[in-house]
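PROTEIN DATA CARD
Card holder: DUF1654 domain-containing protein
Chain length: 85
Origin: Azorhizophilus paspali
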Amino acid sequence: MSFRARAITHQNQISSYHRLVRRINHQVSSSPKAMAERQATLAPEPHDNPEDWERLLSEIEESDNVEMTKHKDGSITVRWSWPEQ
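Structure generated from the sequence above:
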């Protein structure tokens, strides 16, 4: 089995929730504007599992130094601050 085949097999084993989290993390961390402003507006995509999206929102709400605003269209704006040391 080639490395590529193993990688594809492994990718298929990742849960839909973890794919969602990866996408959102990438979306935020790859945006210089989001990083500079310490905020991002995020929205579920049509292929996202609604239960996964709700789980993500719940975990964001429970996070320290994070504020979330829900919008009527289903998107959210997330604002974060760096913890004081």
